[in-house]
Specification:
The complex is a heterodimer. Chain A has 2 domains: about 150 residues, Rossmann fold, CATH 3.40.50; about 60 residues, no CATH class. In chain A, about 40% of the residues lie in helices and about 25% in strands. Chain A is an alpha/beta fold. In chain A, the strands form 2 sheets. In chain A, strands 6-7-8-3-9-10 form a 6-stranded mixed β-sheet. A 4-stranded antiparallel β-sheet of chain A has the order 2-1-4-5, covered by helices on one side. By secondary structure, chain B is an all-alpha fold. Chain B has one domain. Chain B is about 85% helix and about 0% strand. Chain B has 9 helices and no strands. The radius of gyration of chain B is 21 Å and the shape is elongated. At the A-B interface, α2 and α3 of A face α2 and α4 of B.
């Protein structure tokens, strides 16, 4: 579980995060949603330890990140898997080498043990047989699956995904969403997804945190988001006619 | 103020380059790859330029000697001195700032733009050590490139001199051997090692700390070439004053 308490982050005069307090539960897909410029990416980068923050705390299963020594931070980071918006695969390595990279860096496994693990995770993300392809030869959906495979290869406790569906067609986006949810459930990972894809919100949002202008405006789940009367949330989530209809139908059916 | 900030950041990067080293089994592969990219990959262009510039130096020297009192061996002597003292260590380094420096800046800059550096940092890897240290180690072989440039420059001078009809082979070889000071070689290789460090670190700095997108990668490469060249020229002056002055 990740606990965030009264998190503040500024860049010069610009106060980006204004006292966010929330928790991200283990074994659940936790979504951070909000409009562009609401502070989602800054929040995610603070969670990852890529940005230092001025006030507040972030704790990973009780360990407060800012209190950890450099070695303890490194150890904690080996428990973190990250799927970047653009996949961030190392373009000088093959798909198998990309997935093997965290194992080479952080474990003392033999080459055959690492190869077995790579085979296993590539099969798990339905990429069996793509070992020797270069990232540039893979489609956007394949690259995302390689990024997920790389993120989970070292059995992380925490999985972070930044816009995992951006640039993907709706069908592939659902495949990626389902894959993340299955992996979260199967390995009991604390997964945090930064998204503004409403399909993801409806499909896998077991916990949803809605940010507006740097503060937490609302939190709930994919079920409670239908019933909320928070104007900012409804304006954002049900901005399209399709989602307005979906909401109306849901509320009529569940009255 | 911005320059002071950049200088400070550069020295902090140098410190981080030696901190928290990457696992040896991974580092070994990176070093071998960088030797291939930076050293082996530069041999062709360095050999080509050194050979022909050596030839031009010999021809120019020969054409500018009209006084019959000046000995014929001076062509070989002047070519050797020009090549060993300045052309090979300094001007090949300027060329390498364009070739190797741009490659380093653009490859690290592209990694920054495509979040590959963020991916390394999230994993808890010291990205500066992972990316810059292997390049620094690979470029410790740079004196090998410069010694090839020296040899081929002098050979180019010989070929141009003899086959262009500007002098005899015996005169040229006599000149190359005449009044040879071993410390000049030491001076050249001290400069070469200093320039190798500059070639590895300044382009890495501009790649690592770049901000923006693809356009900025191009701009960073240009800036990196300019500053690498400026620092090489300034250090050349400083080292020459200290070692030969």
């Amino acid at each position: 579980m990740i606990e965030v308490k009264d998190l503040h982050k500024s860049f010069g005069e610009a106060h980006i995060l204004k006292g966010i307090t929330t928790t991200f539960d283990k074994g659940k897909t936790n979504l951070i949603i909000g409009q562009s410029g609401s502070g989602k990416t800054v929040f995610l980068k603070c969670l990852l330890g890529l940005f230092e923050y001025e006030q507040g705390s972030i704790s990973y299963d009780g360990k407060i990140f800012s209190n950890l020594s450099a070695d303890e931070r490194t150890e904690l980071r080996s428990d973190i898997g990250m799927v970047f918006q653009g996949s961030a695969l190392f373009d000088s390595m093959t798909i198998a080498e990309n997935v093997m990279f965290p194992l080479r860096m952080f474990t003392k496994q033999s080459k055959s043990e690492m190869e077995d693990r790579v085979d296993f995770v590539l099969k798990r993300v339905n990429l069996d047989g793509a070992h020797h392809k270069m990232p540039s030869e893979a489609s956007g959906g394949m690259q995302k699956r390689v990024a997920i495979a790389r993120a989970i290869v070292n059995n992380p406790k925490y999985l972070f995904c930044d816009e995992p569906n951006s640039g993907l067609d709706p069908k592939t986006a659902i495949v990626i969403d389902n894959l993340i949810q299955e992996i979260t459930d199967e390995y009991q990972i604390t997964t945090v997804i930064n998204s503004h894809d409403m399909n993801s919100v409806m499909e896998i949002g077991e916990k949803i945190v809605f940010l507006k202008d740097g503060h937490k405006e609302w939190e709930g789940s994919k079920d409670t988001i239908f019933r909320t009367d928070n104007k900012a949330v409804t304006n954002f989530v049900y901005s399209s006619e399709l989602f307005k209809k979906v909401r109306r139908m849901y509320l009529e059916e569940n009255q | 103020m911005k320059y002071l900030h950049n200088i400070g950041t550069y020295f902090l990067m140098i410190k981080d380059m030696f901190r928290k080293p990457t696992k040896w089994s991974v580092l070994k592969t990176l070093i071998l790859k960088d030797i291939d990219d930076l050293i082996i990959g530069s041999l062709g262009i360095v050999a080509f330029i050194a050979f022909f510039v050596g030839g031009v130096v010999a021809i120019q020297t020969s054409l500018n000697i009209s006084n019959p009192l000046i000995p014929k061996y001076l062509v070989g002597f002047a070519t050797r001195q020009s090549i060993i003292l300045e052309f090979a260590p300094t001007f090949i380094s300027i060329i390498m700032a364009g070739k190797v420096g741009s490659f380093i800046t653009s490859s690290i800059g592209t990694m920054r733009v495509t979040e590959q550096i963020d991916a390394l940092e999230v994993m808890g890897i010291n990205a500066i050590n992972y990316l810059v240290f292997p390049k620094f180690i690979a470029l410790t072989l740079y004196p090998f490139v410069i010694s090839i440039a020296m040899s081929l420059g002098i050979l180019g001078g010989l070929v141009a001199c003899v086959y262009g009809g500007y002098g005899t082979m015996d005169d040229y070889i006599d000149g190359v051997q005449n009044d040879f000071i071993a410390f000049h070689m030491a001076y050249a290789f001290i400069k070469t090692l200093v320039f190798a460090f500059i070639l590895a670190t300044i382009p890495s700095f501009y790649g690592y700390f770049m901000k923006g997108g693809a356009l900025e990668v191009g701009k960073a490469s240009t800036t990196s070439f300019v500053w690498t060249s400026v620092v090489i020229i300034l250090l050349n002056f400083l080292l020459t004053s200290l070692l030969l002055g």
